[in-house]
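User: Could you go from structure to sequence for me? I need the amino acid at each position, not a summary. Structure tokens:
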């Protein structure tokens, strides 16, 4: 199977009469003459690496949503900004634990922090796998 690059197949785009049958014939003629511009299709290893990076991206997005949710809860209860650089470091978490919040909100924050810790573990595993792939890559 050959996948043609649609941006480079000008013969079809400029045709006055366009039907599937005519387009297929034009593509077949271009392929037979060696003039059909093809796109690059990734091999199985490249696809696997893409999925791995996509999984990492999803974990990072989920982590960001959870952090935003914690900030939103604090903001809704007029808790001042954390005096530390990052609310989710050890010092920031100690400050967070000392804040007065309703029980339900405290429980939600605790759930989010536990989930953030779990995501950090997942992220570390993914990062190690991506790094190992990069080191073992024979392409350079």
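Assistant: Here is the amino acid at each position, in order:
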């Amino acid at each position: 199977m050959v996948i043609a690059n649609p941006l480079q197949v000008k013969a079809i785009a400029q045709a006055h009469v366009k039907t599937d049958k005519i387009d297929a014939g034009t593509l077949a003629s271009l392929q037979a003459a060696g003039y059909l511009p093809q796109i690059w299709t990734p091999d199985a290893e490249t696809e696997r690496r893409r999925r791995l990076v996509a999984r990492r991206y999803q974990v990072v997005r989920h982590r960001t949503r959870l952090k935003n949710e914690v900030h939103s809860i604090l903001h809704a209860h007029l808790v001042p900004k954390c005096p530390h650089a990052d609310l989710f470091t050890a010092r920031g978490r100690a400050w967070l634990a000392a804040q007065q919040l309703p029980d339900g909100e405290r429980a939600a924050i605790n759930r989010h922090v536990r989930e953030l810790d779990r995501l950090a573990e997942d992220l570390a595993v993914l990062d190690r796998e991506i790094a190992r792939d990069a080191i073992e890559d024979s392409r350079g």
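One structural detail worth keeping in mind: Residues 1-41 form one domain.
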